[in-house]
Amino acid sequence: MSAELFDKYRVSYEKGHLIFAEGDLGNEMFIIQSGRVRIFKNVDGFDQTLTVLEKGDFFGEMSILEGMPRSASAEAEEECELLKINSANFVAMIKANIEIAIRIMRKLSLRLREANSQIEKLMHASTGMLPQPEPGRVKVKKEASDVQAYLVSMMSGKTFPITKGEAYVGRIDRVTGAVPEIDLSDEDPKRFISRRHAKIVKNDQGFALVEEIGTVNGTFLNNQRLSTGAPMTLKNGDTLTFANITLTFYNTATE
Fold this sequence. Notes:
The protein contains 3 helices and 19 strands. The longest helix has 30 residues, at 98-127. Helix content is 17%, strand content 36%. The chain is an alpha+beta fold. The chain has 2 domains: 7-96, Jelly Rolls; 149-254, Tumour Suppressor Smad4 (Sandwich), CATH 2.60.200.20.
């Protein structure tokens, strides 16, 4: 996001300051530039922490999109600097930061899936019937505990096993609650890697690396930058760089 474009929307809060309270009306969302913010709800008279957000995370966007009262409270867990975005400059913010736009869409998609699941459960509960699988479409859950491939960090030496046919690479996204299969949060203290940066998928040729839409700071295979959405075949010993974190790929089937 262009710092100059949004400088006038920067606001600072001291530790312990209540940014907004559950039930408040508001038409602003916030993007954390520094510090940490605690999101919490009052449950039976007690404050229950839902999540703690950090640099690059956002909150309060539902008030812009829905015009509804705040569903939770936000408090500065430490001294922090935020961008305060209202409905008038929301579109400019979306254009300036594609990653946040994608994360908002993913969050809304997750809420929609959860709502559909709840509706389905309520419908079956009201009829006293459980959903039945379609003939010929019975799925057997498979345990994917065997390591099919792995990545080794060139910085820390840590090994990241790949046990699924599709493994996302990135950082924990506390806004959506998504945790990637290959979580590089500890490898990236300065937060250069996107929360859903890329994915490693298994295909007929073996494994391939695909950069995710909305990724910033680049994805590189053997120092060659990838195009978003274009799969690149991986082989033993390949170096994969996500922003500034480099790992080596190994396929256990060909070792």
